[in-house]
Structures are given as structure tokens and as C-alpha cells.
Specification:
Largest sheet: 6 strands, mixed
Number of domains: 1
Radius of gyration: 17 Å
């Protein structure tokens, strides 16, 4: 089975559409690691698209919770909170209900599981090996796909009990890098962000995972950032959120 795994779409329709042009029908099943909405200008369009793709599993992200009213965004930065409250006012009743009903991770899918933040806490950021090893110690599942940090890559725990950082390099333009998984190791794999990359690369990121060959394909591709920025400006979303899209930060 070939899975398409998307995370942190953040209401960025231009990025999602660019990704789907390349993705096409090159997958069997689709899963989403959360943060469908927040930050960007296209909350309903992106949520509608995700729903139409009929994911086999979705977990909620912290922005999904804030934008649908489960949380009050009091722990967000001022700019993120402003975008969340704006998004809440834009969402249709149907999409608000959809976001409110999203499951909390971890959720099992095939031979892996999905979370938004970490295995132990859906809102925890996993940036460093010390955070990864604490999560990986809580599970016997060999592969966990996670988002939240918007940084493509991940971590691997081998039998010497040391965690290695997985660093990904994809050439300019649209392309991919592959990772063949070691059956004796445990992994936390981050597909990167579709709508709000934060690893210094402004291109949208996602992964495919093949549970037969046990290969992960990390993808990056350019999209029309100026189109999203123009829509954000029209919506009067905070300027720093508009500017950062072009920086991948």
C-alpha cells in the first residue's frame, strides 16, 4: 500500500493545489497529520479539499483546535491568535463541525501510527533527539509520522539506544529524496509542511510511504507563494505571517 501523508496545510490552497498536481493518483490511501487550517487565507477551500480526498485517518492539530473553538488560542503568539480568530469567523458550520470531530493522536494506520505533535502529547514540539527518544520510548510501533514543527526530516532510534537526526536534502525545483527504513529501528518521520514550511526551504513538503518496500519518499516542490501572500493581504492577516512564507521560516 502506498500512502500519501500530508501535514500542516495551514489554509494554503495554492500550495496544496501545486502538490496535488504532482501527486495525482500516485497513492492508494491518504492520511493527514493535522493543522489543516490556521495562518493562511483559504480555510474552507483547504478543508473541503481534505474532506473530498477521504482520508483513512486524520489527527487534529493545535491550530485546528483553536480555529474551531476547542481551545481559545491564548497560548498562541499575537499573530497566530489573530489568524486563528479570523479563521474561526470564516469557517462554514460544516467545516467547524468537521474540525471539532477530528481525533486526537496517536492513531494507528497499517504498520505505523500518526500524531500531530508527539507520541506523548499532541501539542508537543519534537525538535531535538532528547524529545524524540522520550516519545519513542513510549511506543512499540516501528514508525510514527508526526508534524507540528513544519520541518521535514525526523529521527531514528537504533538498537544502541541512540537517536539519529534524519536530514533531508532535495534538489531545487520539484523532486524527492528516498529513505529505506531499517526494520530493526524505530522512526519518527516528519513529512514537512504543505502550507507553512519552517526549515529554511519555502517549498511545500510531503511524503509517500510504501508499506511493502518500507521506503519513504520525501518531496519538495515550489508553488505560487505570491498568490497566497496576496490573498492573505486582502484578508488583512498579519504582515509577518505574509512575509515569512517566502523565507520558509
Amino acid at each position: 500500500m502506498r500512502y500519501l501523508i500530508l501535514s500542516d496545510l495551514h489554509s494554503n490552497l495554492a500550495a496544496l493545489e501545486a502538490a496535488m498536481e504532482i501527486i495525482g493518483d500516485k497513492y492508494d490511501r491518504f492520511v493527514c497529520l493535522g493543522d489543516i487550517v490556521g495562518y493562511g487565507p483559504d480555510a474552507n477551500e483547504v478543508t473541503d479539499r481534505v474532506r473530498a480526498m477521504k482520508p483513512v485517518a486524520v489527527v487534529r492539530g493545535n491550530h485546528d483546535k483553536a480555529c474551531c473553538g476547542i481551545t481559545d488560542a491564548s497560548d498562541f503568539t499575537a499573530n497566530a491568535r489573530a489568524a486563528a480568530l479570523w479563521t474561526r469567523d470564516q469557517l462554514t458550520p460544516e467545516n467547524l463541525d468537521y474540525l471539532r470531530a477530528l481525533a486526537q493522536g496517536p492513531q494507528p494506520v497499517g504498520d505505523y501510527q500518526i500524531v500531530h505533535g508527539s507520541i506523548r502529547d499532541e501539542d508537543e514540539y519534537v525538535f531535538h533527539p532528547r524529545e524524540a527518544i522520550e516519545s519513542l520510548g513510549l511506543t512499540t510501533v516501528p514508525i510514527t509520522f508526526f508534524g507540528h514543527t513544519h520541518m521535514q526530516g525526523g529521527f531514528v532510534l537504533r538498537d544502541d539506544n541512540r537517536v539519529q537526526v534524519l536530514r533531508v536534502s532535495v534538489a531545487e525545483g520539484a523532486g524527492n529524496a528516498t529513505l529505506e527504513l531499517d526494520p530493526a529501528a524505530k522512526y519518527m518521520i516528519n513529512p514537512g509542511s504543505i502550507g507553512q514550511p519552517r526549515d529554511g526551504d519555502a517549498r511545500a513538503g510531503f511524503v509517500f510511504y510504501d508499506d511493502h518496500t518500507h521506503v519513504v519518499e520525501y518531496w519538495r516542490l515550489p508553488y505560487d507563494i505570491k498568490k497566497t501572500q496576496a490573498a492573505m493581504k486582502k484578508a488583512k492577516l498579519p504582515q509577518p505571517l505574509i512575509d515569512r512564507l517566502a523565507l520558509g521560516r
